[in-house]
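Subgroup meeting minutes
Present: P.N., E.W., G.H.
Scribe: E.W.

1. P.N. recapped why we're keeping a running log of single-chain structure predictions: easier to compare across weeks, and new members can see raw inputs and outputs side by side.
2. G.H. added today's entry (228 aa).
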Amino acid sequence: MQDVETFTISGKPVSVFGLDNYQGSHLGHDPTGSSVWMSSLVMSKILEERAAQGQVQDRKIVEIGAGLGVASLMAWRLGCTNITVTDGDETVVSLIQINAAAVHMESDEGDTWDADVSSLPLVVHEYRYGQNPDFLGGPFDLVLCSDLIYLKISDEMMRDLVSSCKLLVRARGEVLMAHAIRQASQEQLQRFIQWMEEDGFQHSTLPLGSGCPAHVHRCVEMHSFVKP
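Output recorded in log:
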């Protein structure tokens, strides 16, 4: 069966459809990308705080390894109208498209929508790290990454992720990463930070802000990489 979770950002509901673990496994599909993870919710909260300062609405945004696209959907609901959402899994890409349609149906324009997905300000593509990103229409002001560094990620995949970030973001643009704190994956994170810095990115760790509960501060951290 499908999981449905509803979140509220700035008083606006966002319903997200995914696959539960049983259904994903039964279909031979890894359910990792079709679940809602805490990192994407923290990313959404950071975007909400930035939107309150007018730092989201006029940005050109891409999310890579988006899973269900929670952060991108939140950015859309917060007023950004130039968003590209990507994942490397065909099934997950289909779920993002379903979620984009659901979010639009919840909006003020939903009653008169003709169900033409191409008319939405949120564009969905299948994209894998390291792939030539020219077809995505970059460069972008902001690249969103939620929970992309984990124990089993290979050095090759991390190198490809660094390459994608470098190609996707414009000069003085930012790669914003929400990272789930897992002791086993901290070594991978440090290598990723090192490689980003070797490619010229300026790295900093960002505070989560008072809007996140105390237990979240122990589970997720935010990293910013600014391209010179």
